[in-house]
Amino acid sequence: MEVVNALGRRKSAIARVFVSEGTGKITINKRDLAQYFPSTILQYVVKQPLNKLEVAEKYDIKVNLCGGGFTGQSQALRLAIARALVKINPEDKKTLRAEGFMTRDPREVERKKPGRPKARRRFQFSKR
Hints:
It holds the Pfam family Ribosomal_S9. Keywords: Ribonucleoprotein, Ribosomal protein. The protein is of the alpha+beta class. The chain has helices at about 35, 40-55, 70-90, 95-100; strands at about 5-10, 15-20, 25-30, 30, 60-65. Strands 1-2-5-3-4 form a five-stranded mixed sheet. The longest helix has 19 residues, at about 70-90.
């Protein structure tokens, strides 16, 4: 099997994934998964599509992650892994879509507007 690549985004995080046959090793920015995401919850989020299809020990995954925070990065990585698995086996798309792993979450941070302290918050009104 050749190397399959895919892209995942969430908020301002971008994950580029390269999947090849192997033993289930996930390397993120030349660091191990457990070292990059010390939280077990984030590790679980990353492995969700692999565990759903029961192929966690079948593929080696190399990842380039940039931008955003750790939650956005983990969810971007989940989307990228799901897209790569669909490229490998298109029959898996229905299963992954039912779990919501194929949907790109479009929510982004709203920009700050002039004359306001935040995007929508107004300065406190003072009558006198």
